[in-house]
Amino acid sequence: MPLRTPVVIVAPGDDPPQIQGSPQLERLKAYGDVIVHTDRPQSLEQRIARVKDAVCLMNTRSAVKWPAEALRALPRLRLATACGIGVDAFDLAVARELGITVCNIPGKTAPIVAEHAFGLMLALAKRAHFQTAELKAGRWIGGDNVYLSGKVLGIVGTGNIGARMARLAHAIGMKVLAWTFAPSDVRAVELGLRFVPLDDLLKQSDVISLHVRLTDRSRRLIGARELALMKPGAMLVNTARGAIVDTPALVEALHSRTLGGAALDVFDTEPLPANHPLLACEQVILTAHNADQTPEGMDLLNAGVVDNIIAFLEGRPQNVVN
Q1: Please, which pLDDT band fits residue 144 given cuts at 50, 70 and 90?
Q2: Residue of 50, 61, 116, 241 marked catalytic
Q3: What Cα–Cα distance (Å) separates residue 232 from each residue in 236, 247, 284?
Q4: What contacts 218, CB < 8 A, 6 or more positions away?
């Protein structure tokens, strides 16, 4: 049954729009007062002010961060739910210390994100953006595209999204290698791939697609050393988190043409600044951290956020990560 005393439920920065206007929010009206801020907070102080009375926080945008000092300033907060898989926006250790439950939405949009990553890989292999820009500039250029069938895809991280990416790659005849922190023979058979050490994956793959969560262990997992191990002309796809890759090292590898290109949905700074060095790179495909932002994906995520809040308020927390 719903709680007798209404609680305050806040989305502190729903920009770009995600949950605002969603019919899923109607399900929360029986549980408390719902406040959705439609612009992104511009300072830590503004973040705290928006959530100071909240019992439940809907973090619909991972760019809105909740470090230790912010969480310590929110004595009423009891639940924070991410609107997706990643929970790197929260200081999980401090949340646990303060008794704040943090939860996420695992798996619901995996097919949608994997399809986006697959599309980025195809666009990169066919030099779609580069050729479009050249034709718009009045230049009819040559140059080779990449035929992916028979090539090796290296998947870094074989959770729900990585697993779906493996299946899509098999569908066009790619061979698949994988690396994860916890490889399993059973998982390898299930996904029709072979787990190898990360260095071997980097050396052998024609395309590398990143699907690990951002943690202390995965931060800067792909740096200058790892990029140098990749095949000349290999391509990198990242729909995980920008901080998994050392951006300056990636920019250098692209400018030197050591890499064949990069397709990125995530960045070290979001929104991407107008002067970001990646924008000056030639062989890149860039999307605005919107891999799961289809109408279907938005509704799945919004439903997941609401489900997490209702489950918590009814005393049966779900998808808890801390």
Answers
A1: confident
A2: 241
A3: 12, 18, 16
A4: 212, 241, 244
Q: Is 21 left (phi over 0), alpha (psi -120 to 50) or beta?
A: left
Q: What angle do CA 5, 13, 74 make, to 5 degrees?
A: 50
Q: Does the pLDDT of residue 9 top 70, yes or no?
A: yes
164 is catalytic: no
Q: Which residues pair with 33 in a beta bridge?
A: 8
Gyration radius from the chain CA atoms? 21
270 is known as an active-site residue: yes
**The tokens of 141 are what?**
């250029």
CATH for 110-286? 3.40.50.720
CATH top-level class of 7-108+294-313: alpha beta
Structure pTM? 0.90
Could you confirm whether 241 is annotated as catalytic?
yes
Domains 7-108+294-313 and 110-286 share a fold: yes
C-alpha–C-alpha distance, residues 269 and 201, integer Å: 27
264: CB partners within 8 A, 6+ apart? 120, 237, 238, 242, 278, 284, 285, 286, 287
Catalytic residue (choose from 78, 289, 314, 316): 289
- The residue from 40, 187, 220, 270 that is catalytic is 270
Per residue in 69-110, pLDDT (tens digit) is 999 999 999 999 999 888 999 999 999 999 999 999 999 999
